[in-house]
Amino acid sequence: MLEGFAHPEWLLLLLLVPTWLVRSWFARRRGQVVVSDLGLIASGRGSWRIWTTWLVPVLRAACLFCAVVALARPQKTTGQTRMSTEGIAVMVVVDRSASMTAPMMYNGERTTRFEVVKQVFADFVLGDDGGLSGRPADMIGLVAFAGFADTICPVVQSHRTLVQLAMSVQPAPPAEPEGGTAIGDALALAAARLESAEDQIQKANAESDGPPAFTIKSKVIVLLTDGENNRGRIEPLDAAAFARERGIKIYTIGIGGEGGYVYIPGVQPGTRIPI
């Protein structure tokens, strides 16, 4: 019977209803007038207010009863369905070093490498008009790096929020301490984030009394960069080995054309920055 209420604990307040009625009854008794001879009032006719005085405490008790039941939130449940989703956990790792501000052509427009990467990331996550359907069933996160690696967003299914965060990321200035390309650190951070997300999901599924809310089918890192590792504490091969031990696949995508050096807008002419 209690299953029909969202908060059955409020029903304990129903004990106040008989208490209210008893209190009202004794209060009414205390309000009576005692006379020595009933003949003095036998000929008098009582009005409707006199004959209905008992109704007031009853109505108040009924109001109290309805208020308590409303607090308990009665509900009718015809069935409960919980959707279980299986997908890929993807951590996208984006290079935001100064060399990513180099110009390039994309879809007939002149822009920068970094703006191209952000647009491609948005199309990959949400889909576009050119045939990409997006990744609605997958959990996706973002790590950006230059001389240091930062988690922009852990793996989530709130993809529009993820894309908004990605669009707010800006390239790093070429000057120290942010300059450089720490690919190894970024890969290691992404792998650690995927491992942590899998542990949290498994724990949540184990504590749930229903089907799992999400099951990770596989874990993937997608690296987008235009250069080679020249900063950081972890070598890319060591980070790749760390990921492989945890069943994480790494896919790398090169951005831009050939050449080891590019001109960076805002940097003094003649200055060369390795990418």
Can you give a write-up of this model?
The protein has helices at 16-30, 39-42, 48-51, 55-72, 113-126, 159-167, 183-207, 236-245; strands spanning 85-95, 103-106, 109-112, 139-145, 149-156, 214-225, 248-254. The protein has 275 residues and is an alpha/beta fold. Strands 5-4-1-6-7 form a 5-stranded mixed beta sheet, with helices on both faces.
Which helices and strands occur, and which strands form pairs?
Elements lengths: L15 H15 L8 H4 L5 H4 L3 H18 L12 E11 L7 E4 L2 E4 H14 L12 E7 L3 E8 L2 H9 L15 H25 L6 E12 L10 H10 L2 E7 L21
Parallel strand pairs: 1-4, 1-6, 6-7
Antiparallel strand pairs: 2-3, 4-5
In short:
By secondary structure, the chain is an alpha/beta fold. The protein contains eight helices and seven strands; from the N terminus they run ααααβββαββααβαβ.
Radius of gyration: 35 Å
Distance between the termini: 69 Å
Tally of strands: 7
Total of DSSP H or I helical runs spanning 4+ residues = 8
Helical fraction equals 25-40%
Structural class: alpha/beta
Unreliable segments of 5+ consecutive residues: 79-83, 258-275
Main beta sheet strand tally, sense and closure = 5 strands, mixed
Report the principal-axis shape.
elongated
Q: Strand fraction band? A: 15-25%
Side-by-side strand order of the widest sheet: 5-4-1-6-7
- SSE order: HHHHEEEHEEHHEHE
Mean pLDDT: 80
